[in-house]
Write a structure and sequence with these properties.
224 residues, alpha+beta, 5-stranded antiparallel sheet, disordered N terminus
Length: 224
């Protein structure tokens, strides 16, 4: 693909589920992926984009205990650190930190985005995952599917667990005007309206990870 990268951050995180887990539990763990993104902008116009992507450590430990395999999570995170799309952003000064505490396993990614820098224009306007694209009356954020269609199995129990994970977007009012509508669109341009919460200095949007499982998604934030 040209505008979107199939080796997405979310897809990389789903590989954690394959660390010696039995197949059924691997599917169930997919629902334990949580994504938190916070976007704010300094008075100088530099945008700070912070992204935390984690999976539940409790579920992973439970699954590993059943499979009788021991996994060095810290070593795995270090080995796969460079396989996320964030390394392709180059000039965005991305910093990747490991998250490996008693509760969660994953990555904390911080980017400083300068939309006035012409050398970054192709990157910032290229539809890459979690990078806002600003238009006249709306902002778009693209997220690549967690899994390819051919990888998806018909498993109603697994799909039920998928709804437990959420993508939470917190966007500062320094980045966007007065928000009036948020919609989500898939490949067929079928729009789903998404509720949002006015937090005072930012807007909060929550979307179940289930929607990202097998479809590329575009979130559009309309403002005035």
């Amino acid at each position: 693909m040209t505008n979107r990268h199939r080796g997405s951050i979310l897809k990389n995180m789903s590989n954690i589920m394959a660390l010696g887990l039995v197949s059924v539990l691997a599917w169930l763990c997919t629902g334990c992926i949580d994504v938190y993104q916070h976007i704010t902008r300094s008075p100088q116009g530099i945008e700070r984009n912070t992204l935390k992507i984690t999976v539940s450590k409790m579920i992973l430990e439970m699954a590993n205990g059943m499979s009788d395999e021991s996994v060095d999570y810290d070593a795995w995170l270090e080995a796969n650190k460079g396989s996320t799309d964030i390394d392709t952003y180059g000039t965005l000064n991305a910093r990747i930190e490991k998250v490996n505490d008693d509760l969660d396993l994953g990555y904390l990614i911080t980017m400083n985005l300068d939309y006035t820098d012409k050398t970054n224009r192709d990157i910032l306007e290229g539809g890459r995952d979690f990078i806002p694209i600003y238009a006249q009356n709306h902002t778009e954020i693209h997220i690549t599917a967690l899994s390819d269609d051919e990888d998806r199995e018909t498993n109603e129990m697994a799909l039920a667990f998928l709804s437990t994970g959420k993508y939470r977007l917190s966007m500062s009012k320094t980045c966007i005007g007065t928000l009036k509508q948020v919609v989500m669109a898939g490949p067929t341009e079928t729009f789903i309206e998404i509720a949002y919460i006015d937090m005072g200095d930012a807007y909060l949007i929550e979307i179940p990870i289930l929607y990202f499982f097998s479809n590329d998604i575009t979130i559009r934030l309309y403002s005035v």
